[in-house]
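#onboarding

Welcome to the new folks! Below is a worked example of what a typical request in this channel looks like: someone posts a single protein sequence, and someone else replies with the predicted structure as tokens. Don't worry about understanding the tokens yet, we'll cover that in week two.

Example request:
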Amino acid sequence: MKKIIYSIFFVMTVSFIFSACSEDWLEVLPTDGVSDAGVTASTRTAMASLNGIHRALYVRYGSQGRCGLGAWFLHIDEQGEDMVFNYATWTTHLRWLHRSATSSYNERNWLMFYGWIANANVLINGIDENTTGSQDEKDYIIGQALLYRAYCHYQLVQQYGNRYVPGGGNTQLGVPYMTEATTEGQPRNTVEEVYQYINQDIDDAIIILEGKSRMNKSHLNVDVARGLKARVALTMGNYATAVTYAQQARVGYELMDSATYHLGFYTGSQGSGEYMWATQIQEDQTDKWGNYGAYVSRNFSSTSIRRNPRSINNLLYDQIADTDVRKILWDPTGDHLDLEARGIEIVASAKRYPYTNQKFIAVSTSDSRVDVPNMRVSEMYLIEAEAQARRQGNDPEAAAALYTMAVARDPSYILSINTGQDLIDEIMIQRRVELWGEGQRFFDLKRLNLDLDRTGSNHRESVNGGLMQVPAGDTRWTSLIPQDEMDANPLMVQNDL
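Example response:
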């Protein structure tokens, strides 16, 4: 990592960690002069630091459009074809302008993830026999820190490294895999090396977290570790591994029933069997104008939502069966009479556009909080279905996994008789519909080496800056390393322009 910006960001992150959390075990510590040894002196102070990472997932990094992981999910989906803008505002990622080495969005995303990694490394490397507290408490903290380290590098390598090629050598440059909270410049590991490190951290976390309960779903547990293992295996084309861990991860969770799903996604993740991991934004810690719900909900009264409510690609919407409960999560008329009938207010000044989403519903027009769905059980069924379908001879198993998820959304759905590519295509449509707005589509296109194609849909060139198609393998699929990193780190190598 670069010496200048990385060290500054690390200090800033440590500062807010000890001043803005209100979760269990937390005590307020000084906001300056906190040493690594102070952080890991006891499990109480270490837990305060871990809570700070949980909290960091929904704080602002620069402008209000950069509020942590929820903003990242939206940016990832904006880069694909399924999320449609109706107005030319906040279009940096939609138009792929974020890729620039001098883009502030590019720099802040880089710093955000490496800042979280740095804090995780303080815990991983600092908790030892001199740390006061029980071993169970130490393991609870270290296991989650390992998962954060793996998760953040996974996001980074997908954005800043060329795609992982299943069966290939993957000697292309990825990102520096940071295992220490150092401020010295580090070289880029290869993509293969990054994924090997990611898997090792996840495997270690699974061992450490096995059998341990968590405080709430904003914390990570062994199920999240297995879910992340399944995601990574799918990206790498390790389909047997993806199946195994997707099946293990979902044990104990339940798909939402149709009546609940019809209501959309609110703030009730803690009591829902659908959610495996969620960012639960505390009322006294909310960023009113920057939250995930301030951009993706239908009812919060922000400039972004009033002018630019997000729509689904109409070509994708048309492939949702009329009997599928998810059909109601977008309104082709844009009038949202269903919401009004349920007493959910949309301010009169909000623009109305076709196919706008009502999947995400904020607390109110003045409270933008929505629990951010970091991982849901439906994804585990979709991972299993796709992984089975891409394994020769496993179409029946793929169809069975898909059926369980699909019939929960559409009671009229029947077991698929598709095979081969037709079955894969069906699964991918289900995946696109189910995970809309949850930060998956761009990475799916990239890992599968597919073209971006927004043509023939409700995307408008005037809003998208003319970016309607990008062929697979184009250099634009990989973001440039931020210029400040290049300037400060002599070991850093830039991606192709």
